[in-house]
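Good morning,

Attaching, inline, the backbone tokens for the sequence recovery test we're adding to the shared suite. The designed sequence is right after.
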């Protein structure tokens, strides 16, 4: 059976756990080694014994067979707490995709699958994960837990969000980031998935809300989700088109070439300001093209996790 083919035939995000596992396994295979090791409860793999290391974990049965010293590596147990924050406003459902597949994702689909893949890794490492979802209201909050029941509940919620046909029109990012920051009491690694588009306030208030996430010694990573070709490069055919703001309903009719240069300049200015604020607040900024793969998200997780612990 071709797993990818079967997933694409079905309602993809009702198979979220299977697909997330596939993404993670593909990533691990791509880097040729498991990043999930330490000394703990479950055996993971062998490594060659180096002089000076503790002999406690030497596999003597393997030594008897091979006449070489190997130590056992075990999956790592930690008390890492990770909180995922997902923007689920209407702009996150751009571009319009009739049937989500791993090769055809909008921003919400990419965010949901990224979070599910990260949850898969956290589950393997017995770390705790929580989830907050916001749009025009604080839609969902679940504190950090590590149980299987909790994991399945979050997957079900993510699948439901990805398939929502009537997402909220407005976004009050700044208001709900403040509320979320107040909810997360214990030091955590926070991942925020958003396109950073909103209708209700100016940029300074939004940046101030980002800074609030850093309080309590949290580490924060902003995954800035965009459809690069259209939202950053304004790559449209130069024919008359109507461009509609999915959140406000406002529209404008124009030729793409007439505004392309000014649009790109304006977007670049905003993105640069966002990157600068993240640097000032000591937050990790990661620009993500939803037409790309998940390696940028998973690699960032691995690096930030090592820094956090």
């Amino acid at each position: 059976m071709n797993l990818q083919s079967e997933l694409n035939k079905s309602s993809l995000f009702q198979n979220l756990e299977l697909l997330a596992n596939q993404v993670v396994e593909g990533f691990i295979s791509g880097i040729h080694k498991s990043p999930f090791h330490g000394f703990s409860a479950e055996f993971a793999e062998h490594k060659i014994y180096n002089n000076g290391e503790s002999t406690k974990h030497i596999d003597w049965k393997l030594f008897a067979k091979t006449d070489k010293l190997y130590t056992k590596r075990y999956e790592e147990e930690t008390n890492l707490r990770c909180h995922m924050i997902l923007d689920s406003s209407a702009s996150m459902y751009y571009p319009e995709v009739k049937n989500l597949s791993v090769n055809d994702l909008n921003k919400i689909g990419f965010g949901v699958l990224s979070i599910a893949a990260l949850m898969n890794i956290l589950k393997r490492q017995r770390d705790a994960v929580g989830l907050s979802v916001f749009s025009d209201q604080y839609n969902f909050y679940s504190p950090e837990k590590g149980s299987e029941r909790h994991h399945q509940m979050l997957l079900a919620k993510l699948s439901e969000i990805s398939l929502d046909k009537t997402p909220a029109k407005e976004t009050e990012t700044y208001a709900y980031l403040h509320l979320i920051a107040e909810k997360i009491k214990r030091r955590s690694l926070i991942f925020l998935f958003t396109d950073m588009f909103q209708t209700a306030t100016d940029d300074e208030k939004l940046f101030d809300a980002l800074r609030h996430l850093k309080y309590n010694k949290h580490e924060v990573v902003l995954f800035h989700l965009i459809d690069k070709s259209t939202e950053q490069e304004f790559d449209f055919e130069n024919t008359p088109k109507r461009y509609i703001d999915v959140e406000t309903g406002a529209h404008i009719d124009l030729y793409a070439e007439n505004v392309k240069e000014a649009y790109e300049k304006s977007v670049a200015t905003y993105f640069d300001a966002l990157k600068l604020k993240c640097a000032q607040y000591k937050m990790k900024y990661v620009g993500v093209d939803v037409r790309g793969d998940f390696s940028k998200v998973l690699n960032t997780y691995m690096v930030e996790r090592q820094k956090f612990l």
